[in-house]
Write a structure and sequence with these properties.
Distance between the termini of chain B: 10 Å
Oligomer: heterodimer
Largest sheet of chain A: none
Distance between the termini of chain A: 52 Å
Structural class of chain A: mainly alpha
Shape of chain A: globular
Number of helices of chain A: 10
Number of domains of chain A: 2
Largest sheet of chain B: 6 strands, mixed
Order of helices and strands of chain B: EEEHEEHEHHHEHEHEEH
Radius of gyration of chain A: 22 Å
Strand content of chain B: 15-25%
Number of strands of chain B: 10
Strand content of chain A: under 5%
Structural class of chain B: alpha/beta
Number of helices of chain B: 8
Strand order of the largest sheet of chain B: 6-7-8-3-9-10
Helix content of chain A: over 70%
Largest interface: A-B, 18 and 27 residues
Order of helices and strands of chain A: HHHHHHHHHH
Shape of chain B: globular
Chain lengths: 264, 257
Amino acid sequence: MTASGAVLDLSLPQLGLALLLVGVIIAISIYQRLGIAGDAVVGTLRAMVQLYLVGLILAVVFRAARWYWVLLILVVMTAVAAQAATGRLGKPLPGGGVIAALALTVSTAVTLFYVIGVVVRVRPWYEPQYIIPIAGMILGSAMTSAALAGDRLQSDLRSRADEVEARLALGFSGREAVQPVVRAALRAAMIPTVNGMMTVGLVQLPGMMTGQILAGSSPLLAIKYQLVVVFMQAAATAIAAMLFVRLAVARYLTPAHQFTRSRL
Amino acid sequence: MAAPPSLRDPLFEVEHLSLAYPGASNHSPVSILNDVSVGVERGDALVLVGPSGSGKSTLLRCLNRLVEPTAGRVQFDGRDIRSLDPRELRRRAALVMQTPVLFEGSVRDNLLVRPPDASGDFSPGRLASALLDVGLDPELLDRDAATLSGGEKQRVTIARALLGDPQALLLDEPTSALDPPNVALVAETVSRLRERYQLTIVAVTHQPDLVRRLGGGLLYLVGGVVLAYERADGAVSDSRLHAFLSGAQASPPTRHP
């Protein structure tokens, strides 16, 4: 796989041995009656099926290396991420799916373009080995960011509705009246990323860096890629949160500077 | 429905106002206000009474366009409010809410909470006199707003509303979150300010004391429908008002001609 050829292949029996590890969570769940043993089994099965399917698809796409296959995969990934970002909101956000799709598409496209085209300079740009994992990491950050921002936005609009109304009654515009709530939602979305940058490498080695090292890269090359990943995730987090919150909060405001509480 | 008496110099005219929210799927729309018409003379008072859920607060919020009706119209100072900038309308018809909303910071910070383009006098002297107006010591200006009592907080929000030099005060149960001594203080404050600044007042309240102090019109709302309109100046019998305010709407007031 790499020049150093240091990768140990895993046999199916070896994977079977790894599967025994899941038995620990199932055993503790049963022993402590946590009621999550069923979910753990389903999760295990899903992880196996999903990863194998993805592996098969990626193997095909890597071999074909056609830009349209890559684009199709990116679109599917974005759609799934957009769905996941709004799926867990307390009350469905009106038009939430479209808003999430827009926020994730723009934040990912901008960040991906910069990383692939300007920083790493992958040629051709659709080289699946680079663009797919990088896009996946960007999308993951954007998705988490939009979900955190959306959740905080909704709960704060609900708990601080009187505050928003009081500002409107004082003559603030709708946008001005929700600004403190918008700010809180943006902070909620971005703080984990900023905190993550503080401790990266000290508490745990990031997954991508671990993978690269396991695959035989030198740690010094791995950290360079990891730094690019950390920075691009920060950018995607910020862009996704900003777009999502701005578009989402507008769903609760009218042009006449009214706050439509009933939509919450 | 009680026909609005013809007004000489109305500040607010509400004409056939209706509001319905779309119901949840497979449910019919929820009617909040149904063909409400009423007017308020400049400098006069209108008190909205009725059981909770009768649409009083919603009607109040239609007057400064925090809520958009589905039918009918509201005129303010002779103009359809939809032709006014809502922000300007809300500065001229200031709302005082049931639960006083104070922001983080001192009383001074709270009095200075204004939109960036707000005009008016916010000098230290004016802030102090605004506090005096509502019966508070100007020394409170530098107090942390969070440390005030409920009654003090409500009076700070009234002072904040007054600083915008409004023509009208819209009061949404301004005393319902207060204990009896504070209820009397706020009621007294409101009626005194009305005199001093010739304010037009529209109030939602359950307090007979405030109703009597304000005088003016009384609009009885039940289920979003106007049940009766009458003048509170002496004409209204205490027992009837009391029965209605306490929510005994089993015996609603008779319709007035």
